[in-house]
Automatic annotation (TrEMBL):
Entry protein name: acylphosphatase
Organism encoding this protein: Nannocystis exedens
Family: Belongs to the acylphosphatase family.
Domain Acylphosphatase-like residue range list: 1-72
Active site: 15, 33
Highest taxon of source: Bacteria
Length: 72
């Protein structure tokens, strides 16, 4: 499953945030910075993988992604 994240996600601990969240869900994959966005490639069960963006959105107010970032 590929997820593209836009907004201010560099220099705010976003990759470690996603790693902790994915590890806690038993998911693998990678997070790659690109020009203007970040690509998250999630590996694991489809149902669990769909949980990752929902949990990231719910937790972004607490850090890891500024309020203007978009996950899609």
């Amino acid at each position: 499953m590929a997820i593209t994240v836009t907004g201010v996600v560099q220099g705010v601990g976003f990759r470690p945030f996603v790693h902790r969240l994915a590890s806690g869900l038993g998911l693998g994959g990678f997070v790659r910075n690109r020009i203007g966005d970040v690509l998250i490639e999630v590996e694991g069960g489809a149902g669990t993988a769909r949980t990752l963006p929902r949990r990231a959105r719910a937790r972004r107010a607490g850090g890891g992604c500024d309020p203007g970032c978009g996950m899609g």
